[in-house]
Specification:
The protein has about 270 residues and is an alpha/beta fold. The protein has a domain of about 180 residues: 3-Layer(aba) Sandwich (Rossmann fold), CATH 3.40.50.300. Helices cover about 35% and strands about 15% of the residues. It has nine helices and seven strands, in the order ααβαβββααβαβαβαα. The protein has a seven-stranded mixed beta sheet with strand order 2-3-4-1-5-6-7, sandwiched between helices. Helix 5 packs parallel to helix 6. It starts with about 20 loop residues before the first helix and ends in a 22-residue tail after the last helix. The chain binds guanosine-5'-diphosphate. GO terms for molecular function: GTP binding. Keywords: GTP-binding, Nucleotide-binding, Repeat, Ribosome biogenesis. One of its GO terms (cellular component) is chloroplast.
């Protein structure tokens, strides 16, 4: 039967959509024919500066943090306007040679006239933050150590997670908290519990104004960037998938006893 299809000049694949027989082989053959994913190749990714968006509510210290990171001891290659008018990009080369593009939304937002309306301003800054974050590999969410996590921070973190961004949470103005009440560990735990969508993110407590622990922010950002650009080979992914489904089978379909089946996985982006 299958052999009959060779006459078309194309390679036939015998599959059964119901039992799944042959579909793995079919997908392997399909994957081989696909062009390599654009912009994802390891070499290309390494050449691109890591894009880092600094976002958070007004007055939490985003500009101060940016200035502390892009301090004089680092060489600022150039200041360039962002591709949108929402944000200003600053290129920074770190002493280790790593290049960063810092996307800062603070300056423009301060000039916003919509700031008069609390709801309008909030919506606007979330939208701006998200536009900046879409261009970024890593989102740095800055929160005020005294104010703590707000509703807007929660919303932003939820959006970062759904956009598949790496996240570093910076608890700034650490100089203003009472050390008898807060330790770094306690604060990190508190933040992770409240921002549950990004509970995997690193939490760094800093004081941007004095520059304390700003190095830790950079370290966390570089690490998050490395994880964000990590590509897992298809073979590894399928090995893990096979083991995982052996350990815990996919659920049965609603209203039937048939089990769901996972045939194949590949990291598309
Ligand atoms: P942005 O609106 O998020 O960009 O915040 P800014 O960087 O403009 O900072 C807002 C205010 O907080 C300024 O008056 C800063 O001097 C102050 N500030 C920023 N970082 C710190 C900090 O680490 N500690 C303290 N005590 N004040 C800070």
């Amino acid at each position: 039967m299958v052999a009959d299809f060779w006459v078309t000049g194309l390679q036939p694949h015998a599959v059964s959509a119901i039992t799944g027989t042959g579909t793995g082989e079919m997908l392997d053959a399909l994957a081989e024919l696909l062009p390599p994913p654009t912009g994802l190749e390891q070499d290309d990714a390494e050449e691109q500066p890591l894009a880092v968006a600094i976002v958070g509510r007004p007055n939490v210290g985003k500009s101060s943090l940016l200035n502390a990171i892009a301090g004089e001891e680092r060489s600022i290659v150039c200041d360039l306007s962002g591709t949108t008018r929402d944000a200003v990009d600053t290129r920074v080369t770190l002493p280790g040679g790593q290049r960063l593009t810092l996307i800062d939304t603070a300056g423009i937002r301060k000039r916003s006239r919509v700031a008069d309306s609390p709801d309008g301003a909030e919506q606007l800054s979330v939208d701006r933050a998200m536009r900046a974050v879409r261009r970024a590999d890593v989102a740095v969410l800055v929160i005020d150590a005294v104010e703590g996590v707000t509703q807007q921070d929660f919303r932003l973190s939820e959006l970062f997670a759904s956009e598949g961004k790496s996240v570093v949470v910076v608890v700034n103005k650490w100089d203003r908290v009472d050390p008898r009440i807060w330790s770094v560990e306690k604060m990190a735990e508190n933040v992770k519990t409240q921002l549950r969508h990004v509970s995997w993110a690193s939490v760094v407590c800093t004081s941007a104004i004095s520059g304390r622990h700003v190095e830790d922010v950079l370290e966390a950002v570089l690490d998050a960037g490395k994880q964000h650009r990590r590509r897992v080979p298809t073979a590894t992914l399928n090995m893990v998938l096979r083991e995982a489904t052996q350990w815990k089978a996919p659920p049965t379909q609603r209203g039937s006893l048939r089990k769901g089946r996972i045939y194949y996985a590949t990291q598309a982006g």
